[in-house]
């Protein structure tokens, strides 16, 4: 392991919690160099919704390489991109009655967010933005400026400006009407709020600690944006691609954002790929005004196309995700109940994005460390890493889900002494 410690930058992080060398992976399991098998409820931070190396995608991918299909294509027209666009329109957009133009930014979530923010500013001619408490939108400067976490913001090394935070849903535990402050400062000529171009929001905050916004809150935000002339950007990088059940996490609210960012699981294979979806009237880019060398990652287009065909041509995966989400919810309810009197915790999340928040400092991290001793990969989230976070592949079998949930229950028991 010394080559990593000797040569790789101190910036490395996940590997510090899981100090083994992984070699192969399939479905919801990884195998290390010593042949030990690990159950993966981390799911590539949301990039592996269909598990590791899914067979249904591997075949077409190998075939594509075998016939020397375009690998690197900038934004040239290619068969792989054409097939993806056709499939995305037929399988995702049309059945949902959605009308969006598709932009391929550089292949990361942060790149999609940067594009969305630039475009919103270009459309409106305004520079100010509204973000929400505990938001996470990526690590580049624009994305960091709308991100909540003070440690991550600190890494910027310069002031992060031009965005004003508003309370996310439940920030005051329901003590104030939704958008009380937001609407007040928007309307008040004396509030000093800079006139905003757009809001950027996650429907369930992933890195922020699995905080779900209620349907009414999302509808209220859409309504407020429409009334006040703000563009609504939904960052669906982590909660999109079926993580909460439906393909887009905002579908349950019946709303249509003006701009949507998608990345993480869109390729289905863990290959880098990102999309910005833009209402046609807002597609005001000039040619090349936002670009990126790797925005035409064609092998990712191939696996993305097959992902949509295989998992999104019917509602089987969506229903299964909701069912498995309920199963996790039940298991978590039991854990919360069993710890009553020993430690304070509660659960939150939606679909198969779930977490348990522990009041006691450091407890969530201890549970994750204990789970790793039992060969289960789990991460923590929230501003103080107070939330034990579950993002198992959506394709995790019921048996594997039971196995992982039992490890979590056992780890909580051991760590809390309950
Ligand atoms: C992961 C994430 C990003 C950033 O994506 P990268 O690919 O890491 O740049 C942006 N927004 C949300 C909601 C994310 O979860």
Describe it.
- By secondary structure, this protein is α/β, with parallel strands linked by helices.
- It folds into 2 domains: 153 residues, Aspartate Aminotransferase, domain 1, CATH 3.90.1150; 253 residues, Type I PLP-dependent aspartate aminotransferase-like (Major domain) (Aspartate Aminotransferase, domain 2).
- The chain has 13 helices and 17 strands.
- β16 and β17 form a beta hairpin.
- α4 packs parallel to α10 and α11 packs parallel to α13.
- The two termini are 36 Å apart.
- It binds pyridoxal-5'-phosphate.
- The site of pyridoxal-5'-phosphate (PLP) has 14 residues, from α5.
- This is Diaminobutyrate--2-oxoglutarate transaminase.
Relevant terms:
aminotransferase; 7-stranded mixed beta sheet; pyridoxal phosphate; single chain; alpha/beta; 418 residues; 4-stranded mixed beta sheet; 2 domains; EC 2.6.1.76; pyridoxal phosphate binding; Aspartate Aminotransferase, domain 1; Aspartate Aminotransferase, domain 2; transferase; binds pyridoxal-5'-phosphate
The total number of structural domains is 2
Can you give the helix content as a percent range?
25-40%
CATH superfamily of the largest domain: Type I PLP-dependent aspartate aminotransferase-like (Major domain)
Q: What is the CATH topology descriptor of the largest domain?
A: Aspartate Aminotransferase, domain 2
Question: What secondary-structure arrangement, pairings included, does this model have?
Answer:
Blueprint: H1 2-7, H2 14-17, E1 22-26, E2 29-32, E3 37-40, H3 55-66, H4 79-93, E4 101-103, H5 109-124, E5 128-132, H6 141-145, H7 150-154, E6 163-166, H8 180-187, E7 196-201, E8 204-205, E9 211-212, H9 215-228, E10 231-235, E11 259-262, E12 275-278, H10 298-312, H11 316-339, E13 345-350, E14 353-358, H12 363-373, E15 376-377, E16 379-381, E17 387-390, H13 398-416
Parallel strand pairs: 3-15, 5-6, 5-7, 7-10, 10-11
Antiparallel strand pairs: 1-2, 2-3, 4-12, 8-9, 11-12, 13-14, 14-17, 16-17
Helix pairs in contact: 3-10, 4-10, 11-13, 12-13
Bound molecules: pyridoxal-5'-phosphate.
The site of pyridoxal-5'-phosphate (PLP) has 14 residues, from helix 5.
Keywords: Aminotransferase, Pyridoxal phosphate, Transferase
Cofactor: pyridoxal 5'-phosphate
Protein name: Diaminobutyrate--2-oxoglutarate transaminase
